[in-house]
Structure formats: structure tokens, C-alpha cells
Amino acid sequence: MCTSFVYRKKNIIVAMNFDNNGMPFEVSTKDPKVFSVLVDGGRGKMPSFGVNKEGTFINHLMVDSNGTGSYRRAGRKVTHTTKLVNDILYEIITPNELNEYLNNMEVVNVPDYSVHNMISDKDGNVWIVEPGRKNIFSEFNESPYYVMTNFSLCDYKDKKEVAGDGLDRYEIVNDMLDKDHYLSVSDAFKVLQAVRQNGEWKTALSMVYSHIDKTVYYCYNGNFEEILTYQFS
């Protein structure tokens, strides 16, 4: 269970808590143009979330299934969430192509999982992809920020009702971002700190990407006093 948000006033800031239940993971910068976190969900380590040199971010967070969107083999008209993460990070699909791509491609889950994706670009445009439901496009000037946790944003938008995990974290993030006139990197970490988790799902990695700085700031295990950096050259 994770929390992510895109702040899109002046500087574009993307922030995420990766909450983990013990799955092996590692930070990868093998390709210097991509900062990614690889997670082994039982089928080997695959890109789970990250950001590339162009400022394009993508993740996938757990969400309750609505009974559709289950795994099917990828093909000409079908792709799955893990492949989408890889294709976005490595610019096989660019933000300029994304609306057309999503209009013509069905995104499904990988086996045994139900997730949704948040994608954002250097301008603060946001796409939400929810297999078995639909997609949302939120233009950069629609709102000052966009938040995603672990309930369906499509269901929330359509019904104005929330079902599933993460409502408490969603509300905390919204309340904190409402009070900020200009969000700094340190402010973003304060928001992540306010929604870090312990227990079965523990905050294992927290990251903040600043587009002005072209830098990813991150820390492990809720240790917000020891921030590491990765700067795109």
C-alpha cells in the first residue's frame, strides 16, 4: 500500500512512499537516464515505479479489483501494467503519445495483482490508468496537485464515494497540500512523513523528484534524516 502525489504549481514535484510487505526491491540507475525501483513480486525484479531524465514519472499502486481488468497476454491491443511502467520510463511511449495510446490500448493487470498507475510529465499533466475501470487525464492547470493512494480514483470521480484502503492517507495529503502556497522538496518529505506506514505494509522507500533540480531525493525505511540524491546529468 503506497501514497503518491504530483504538485504542479511553479515547480513540478512528484512524491511517493513505497510501502512494502517484504518483497525484495532495489534502486536501479543502471541506465543513467532512468531512476527506477525494481520490485520482485514473485516473478523476478521488474520496474515498479520511477522517473526518467525527461521528468516523466510512473508508478503502480495496489487497488481493490472490481472483477475485471485481469491479466491477459500482451498483444497488439493489450498491454499490462508492468510493461506500461517499463515503456513509459524508457520512452517507448512518450507523454505526447499517451492519450492516443491509452485510447487504443487496453491495459490489464499482471497475474495475481490488482493495481492502478499514476503517470505525470514535466509539465504536471497526470494520467490515471485503472485496469477494468477506465483512465483519467488531468491537465496541469486543472488543480494545484493530484493525489493517489489505494482506492479507485475512477470510482471516486464517478460516484463521489470512496471504497478501499488509503482514504486516511489521501485526506492527510490533501489537507497538507491545501495549506502550502509553494511546496519545497523538504515540505514534500514532511507530507510523506505524515503518511508513512508501519506494520504489515511498512514504508520502505520515500522519494521526491524536483523537475527544477532534475534530481531525485530519497530515503529508506522512513529515515527522513538521511536523504540520498540522484541527479540527472
From TrEMBL:
Family matches, as InterPro entries? Ntn_hydrolases_N
What domain of life does the native source organism fall in? Bacteria
SUPFAM superfamilies, alphabetized: N-terminal nucleophile aminohydrolases (Ntn hydrolases)
What protein name is recorded for this chain? Linear amide C-N hydrolase (Choloylglycine hydrolase family)
